[in-house]
Specification:
single chain, mainly alpha, 82% helix
């Protein structure tokens, strides 16, 4: 279950990272509330996952999911660069996350 909690935490991290763009410096009420809510719930799920998983592994996976997912959403939602080199680097992050999962004893 810890890995499921960690996945949820990572997905919520993507939500708040992208949400920051839409808050316009926390001047927009609804996006700001949604962003802060995603932040809090993401941290809650991360802390639950940390009951079982090593902190280094969990934190690396959480940030990896957030970083790779946010970069992909930036391309899809915000029109950011979609060049091959960018996707290659995102793939390296995903490979690292998968590697940590496969090598974990939990």
């Amino acid at each position: 279950m810890a890995w499921i909690y960690l996945l949820i935490a990572g997905l919520l991290e993507m939500g708040w990272a992208i949400g920051l763009k839409y808050t316009q410096g926390f001047t927009k009420l609804v996006p700001s509330i949604a962003t802060v809510s995603c932040m809090v719930v993401s941290f809650v799920f991360l802390s639950i996952a940390l009951r079982t998983l090593p902190v280094g592994t969990a934190y690396a996976v959480w940030t990896g999911i957030g970083a790779a997912g946010t970069a992909l959403l930036g391309v899809i939602l915000l029109g950011e660069s979609a060049e091959f080199r960018r996707f290659f680097c995102i793939g390296l992050i995903i490979a690292g996350v998968l590697g940590l999962r496969l090598l974990s004893s939990h």
